[in-house]
TrEMBL record:
Origin organism lineage: Bacteria, Bacillati, Actinomycetota, Actinomycetes, Propionibacteriales
Protein name: Nucleoside diphosphate kinase
This protein's encoding gene: ndk
Active site annotation, chain numbering: 115 (pros-phosphohistidine intermediate)
Residues annotated as binding ATP: 9, 57, 85, 91, 102, 112
Domain Nucleoside diphosphate kinase-like: 1-134
Length: 134
């Protein structure tokens, strides 16, 4: 079994889609190891997105992820990292396949509702960052 860090970004909370999105992960068979509503500051955003901090798209991304409450979760299951990314869909909601969370529910490259760790190594780093007591 494997664990992965999932964020329900502020657009998911604002739009009232947390339940809809969580249902998809639960229906797939993933289990919840941690789940918490958080409001993060710029330092936490920078730590989470360390690999993107120097990118052109990062300042507005930081604005967005600190713009309101988000829900952070650790989901668990067989190949959870890859399974969550498949359910999330491609980064850009306009291009993501129908049937995925982003493909069905997002029309934006930035406000794309969810984050999922991109590898088991990223998952370990991100879980330690978000849930140090887990
Ligand atoms: P995530 O890491 O959030 O699961 P991802 O792995 O599909 O998404 P990354 O390339 O890691 O995408 O980018 C992280 C986040 O940065 C994206 O989810 C999106 O919110 C934002 N982002 C990425 N590229 C762009 C871009 N060109 N313009 C605006 N925002 C972007």
């Amino acid at each position: 079994t494997q664990r992965t860090l999932v964020l329900f970004k502020p657009d998911a909370v604002r739009r009232g889609l947390v339940g809809e999105i969580l249902s998809r992960f639960e229906a797939k068979g993933l289990s919840i190891a941690a789940l918490e509503l958080r409001q993060i500051d710029a330092a936490q955003a920078d730590a989470h997105y360390a690999e993107h901090v120097e990118r052109d798209f990062y300042p507005p991304l930081r604005e967005f992820v600190t713009s309101g409450a988000l829900v952070a979760a650790v989901l668990e299951g067989d190949e959870a990292v890859e399974v969550v990314r498949a359910i999330n869909g491609a980064t850009d909601g306009r291009k993501a396949a129908p049937g995925t969370i982003r493909g069905d529910l997002s029309l934006s490259n930035r406000e794309n509702l969810v984050h999922g760790s991109d590898s088991p190594e990223s998952a370990s780093r991100e879980i330690a960052l978000w849930f140090p007591n887990l």
